[in-house]
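Box 3.1 A note on notation
Throughout this textbook, protein chains are presented in two layers. The first layer is the amino acid sequence; the second is a token string describing backbone geometry. Keep the layers aligned when reading.
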Amino acid sequence: MEEVLSEDKETVTVQVTYNGIGWVGFSFSEGRSMLNQIAVIGLPGEPNSQTNPGKYLLASKAGKSLNTLLSAEEQTLENASISQNDTHTVLKFTQRVAELENVPISATNPGFALWAYGTSNEFGKHAEKGSLELQLTPCGEDPEGDDPGQPENQGNDPQAECAFQDVIDIREDGSVLIEEFVDLVDQSVSVRMTYSDQGWLGFSFSAGTSMLGSIAVIGFADQPLSQTNPGKYSLNSKNSANANTLLPLDQQTLTNATITQNDTHTVMQFTKKLEEDNEVPISVSALNNALYAVGRSNTFAEHLTRGSFQIQLTPCGQEGGEFLAGNSGIPDQGYWLSHGLLMSVAWAIMIPLGIGSSMLRDLVPLSPKGWFYLHAGLNMTAVFCVIAGFSMAVHKVGESKGPEKHFSQSPHHKVGLAVFLFAVLQALNGLFRPHAPHAPPKEEKQEEELDQDVEDGEVAAEESLIAPVTSKIRAFWEYFHRIFGVSALGMAWYNIYSGFDIYSLRFGEKNPSTAFLAVGGGLAGTIIVVYAFLKLKKWRSSAK
């Protein structure tokens, strides 16, 4: 590495030569950590431009995923180039000293410089990195500082400086970040969890991928910091805060535990011993199972997102270990969306059309009995959709909470059970409807009309030229069939609306309830308006 101050000391020119093939990076830094520093990175596999070599904000050691290329206005390098031949890669640039105002380095004051090179020309995890202490060298003077050829300590020295190293982007979208390191002297692990929004945070080392039965660290940013905030909890439920028990004070052994929050981020940090009584032992040499969760607000309730992953922890002074992504976010989003769509199709489309085929039978261009078969077919199709959607929900709830929890917690679950039972009973009620009694003999035309009324059993007496002779049982059945059906429809609409609220909160998606009401309400409203128009028209005709 070579560097030199201009004669007016307003710019510094740097040249970094790597004896190999790969991307090259360099940064003047406040310390020996690269995180949150501005670095110059050159990619030999891409053309030289205003952004190559370019300035990046470093948030990760793993490559582009979290390292942000600064905007064009901030790309103020001069004479920047990256070149490469078969054996060497050379990064060169000139930077204004005024831009280093936050970095305590000058011709008279020593500071830090960081360097790194990649395993290839593609920007990814570095092959090696290092740091050195130096003073800027005015033109014509010999450089002062460390030997830049020595990489920073990456051995097994337990006394090495302990600091958070690699940033792990758990969800691969920058929303949940994990940092960690192990202090071999203290036999402890420190964890920092950053969430790009506001909400309670939870983290746990676990025996498996399930949080149930684990000891988790949970923090609430809207509560004062204390021995129990962030604190250790015994997890007994995924949905009920009341079922998750805060451990007694003698088991609250965290140190340096904090949780902070601003308008955009929530950060929890803590240190815990690698081995503690009645807790999962944490390994330094092998992969550990880890779980995380984020609340939809600062109030402890059902999480907004959660997940699991495996990680090999990083002893002080060493490179980050292996990381294996697991389940990120709330699983089965498509599963629950399918559940909602099945119910929506049944109650917003099939059932209103089935009712409409009865109410507007005179407009149905089918045989005299055709409207009845259409009515029955649409309603039975809806019932099959309800059975399928209900079975999906019961299976998934039972899988995550246990069979005994199917209908014991959420009002949505309880109303869903009632809707399911109403739908099945209404279908059975339709299949076993009592026959309408026969009418007295009439003229041929009147008999045909009566036969149609007897077949469907649902035409009001005033709608027929001859009122059918209806038994009390049949009259009760008709009344019950209508009231039961309307009640089921009302409960179903309420439950689908509340279900879409739950879906929207859980997965952070746009609430589909407006679309549901628009389709179902529009269809039902159209049927009612047309029915009312036909009744009014018929009333006016009969009044003449």
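The radius of gyration is 35 Å. The first helix runs from residue 333 to 359.
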